Amino acid sequence: MSNFSVYLMLGLEHILNWAALDHLLFILSLTCVYVVTDYKKLLWLVTAFTLGHSITLALATLHIIQVNMAWVEFLIPCTILLSAISNLIKTKQGYKYGVVAIFGLIHGLGFSNYLQSLLGAESSIFAPLLAFNIGLEVGQIIVVSIILASSIVSLHILKWKQGAYIKVISGITIGLVLPMILERWP
Question: Number of C-alpha atoms within 13 angstroms, CB side, residue 6?
Answer without folding.
Answer: 9
